[in-house]
Amino acid sequence: MPGFEVEIARALAAKLGVELKQVWVSWDGLIPALTGERCDAIINGMFITPERLKVIDFSVPYYGSGETILVRKDNNAIKSLDDLKGKRIGVLAGSVTVNELEKKGIGELVVYPDQNTIIIELNNSRIDATYLEAPSAAWALQKDPSLNIKLVKEYIPDERFDAGVGLRKGDAELKAKIDAAIAELIKEGKVAEILDHYGVPFFPPK
């Protein structure tokens, strides 16, 4: 089964010297599966939030997620949000990016109902750039290499959400081992390498 979370789980298991057993559950069943002892850890892009910390513990974060800028491949002028000023920027209706860019005085903003439409509009030069959630945008480009679009790799968003390994409350020994393994994988560049394989930018955890 492909996926960067799966590969990160394999790398962690290798560091810990244990065999990885994958337990597949629906997203809303992740925490119940952990607390009900169907699994020992959640490695599924789960962001560390105060609400979740009331129910489970987390390891140190292994990557940060956030928004990214997409442009056509021949555009080397846009590297930051400031470079978007005065441009036609595609944004997703109802997303936090709309208010964020408006507050910064960036745009003309062109609001679309879904990500696929935004990417098509950018590819067809109807907008100059777009500002989307990095992993899903990277996956869209990965699925269709014919698109004349790239991620602006120089851009690292100020606001990021950190993903950590979900653990049962009180499982201190496992947490300490996973924390140490994550630190090693980040230092070695392994997490960034795995994300890069899927076209997803590595944003250092906060």
Largest sheet: 5 strands, mixed
Q: What is the average per-residue confidence, as pLDDT, rounded to a whole number?
A: 92
Number of strands: 9
Which spans of ≥5 residues are poorly predicted at pLDDT below 50? none
Structural class: alpha/beta
* Count of separate DSSP helical elements: 8
Cross-sheet strand order for the largest sheet: 5-4-6-3-7
Series of secondary-structure elements, N-terminal to C-terminal: HHHEEEEHEHEHEEEHH
Shape: elongated
Estimate what percentage of residues fall within beta strands: 15-25%
Radius of gyration: 19 Å
As a percent range, the share of helical residues equals 25-40%
Distance between the termini: 29 Å
What's the gist of this structure?
By secondary structure, the chain is of the alpha/beta class. Helix content is 36%, strand content 16%.
List the helices and strands and how they pair.
Layout: H1 4-16, H2 30-35, H3 50-53, E1 57-58, E2 63-65, E3 67-72, E4 89-92, H4 96-103, E5 109-112, H5 115-123, E6 129-133, H6 134-143, E7 149-151, E8 161-163, E9 166-167, H7 172-188, H8 190-197
Parallel strand pairs: 4-5, 4-6
Antiparallel strand pairs: 1-9, 2-8, 3-6, 3-7
